[in-house]
Specification:
By secondary structure, this protein is α+β, with helices and mostly antiparallel strands. It is built from 7 helices and 9 strands. A 7-stranded mixed β-sheet has the order 1-2-3-4-5-7-6, with helices on both faces. Strands 8-9 form a two-stranded antiparallel sheet. α2 packs across α3. The longest helix is centred in the middle third of the chain and has 15 residues. The two termini are 34 Å apart. Bound molecules: coenzyme A (COA). Coenzyme A (COA) binds next to β4, α5, β5 and α7.
Length: 249
């Protein structure tokens, strides 16, 4: 399924303005096509995964089986970015229930078999399994577009938001002078820049803590950030509560 038509959606446009620090998202990316991920691209997606996460252990990486399972159980939760026929970006996730006041968890416990086994259509949160952009294509807004497509799924299904454990590749340069918790606080405050966490913060995510032993990555001593994006348009039908964006009031 081709998904560029989402860009014309009114809610999408509102996200575009609020999710990237107020800057309208209108970069010229017409040469890149965004699609729901398809099994035909599974091998290329796994190849991109290994290229983009060179420090991670095998258990942390997407597999062909996981990609095919995602297509079977929750196809609209995964996207790819194509330059012609070449996969140059991707992002996937599932719906789960999660208590966000408790950052510490192991991804496998939350997402289940092959990264998607615990998909629950009634789950409150979209759990981001991974997002990656080919090094040659970074800094061109491709991850932002993939995040926007995820946010659209969250809005369409009235979910509370997106949660994820995020790698913190820049921690390796600071781990001898501060803890992982201090590092993510410094990045969140804008005093340090992290190639991954800064991009996530620029896309509207909040840092809600750190996760020990989240990844097999000796460079970061296995630490990850715990990040949350709150759906401003979420409506709790039971309590009639909502957390709409102030602009919507
Ligand atoms: C993190 C990643 C997905 C970002 O992809 P990208 O397409 O380059 O990101 P974008 O171009 O959409 O940039 C999004 C925002 O982050 C900022 N950003 C991106 N890379 C950055 C960097 N290295 N340093 C500082 N800011 C950065 C951009 O300036 C942009 O902010 P803006 O909207 O205010 O201008 C990409 O670097 C990547 O694949 N990294 C390796 C895999 C990874 O860490 N994935 C995350 C899993 S938790």
């Amino acid at each position: 399924m081709h998904v560029d038509s989402l860009a014309g959606d009114a809610a999408y446009q509102r996200i575009a303005c609020s999710g990237t620090g107020g800057r309208p998202y209108c970069r010229a990316m017409s040469e890149i096509e965004y699609r729901v991920a398809e099994g035909a691209y599974a091998d290329a997606m796994v190849e991109l995964e290994h290229l983009c996460f060179p420090n991670l252990g095998g258990d942390d990486l997407l597999t062909v089986e996981g990609i095919l399972l995602q297509e079977a159980v929750f196809p609209e939760g995964a996207f790819i970015a194509l330059d012609g026929d070449r996969v140059i970006g991707m992002g996937s996730g599932i719906f789960v229930d999660y208590e966000i006041s408790q950052p510490q968890h192991h991804m496998a416990d939350v997402v289940g078999h092959e990264g998607v086994g615990n998909h629950d259509p009634d789950g409150d949160w979209y759990y981001g399994i991974d997002i990656a952009v080919h090094p040659d294509y970074r800094g061109r807004g491709i991850a932002s577009k993939l995040y926007q497509l995820r946010k659209q799924v969250v809005i369409d299904h009235n979910k509370r938001g997106i949660i994820a454990g995020g790698v913190i590749p820049g921690f390796v340069n600071h781990k001898h002078e501060m803890t992982a918790a201090e590092y993510v606080e410094e990045v969140a405050a804008g005093r340090l820049v992290d190639a991954t966490l800064t991009a996530q913060i620029r896309n509207g995510f909040e840092v809600r803590g750190v996760i020990a032993d989240y990844v097999q990555d000796p460079t970061s001593d296995n630490w990850a950030s715990f990040i949350v994006w709150f759906n401003p348009w979420y409506r709790d039908d039971e309590t009639d509560d909502d957390n709409r964006h102030p602009e919507e009031e």
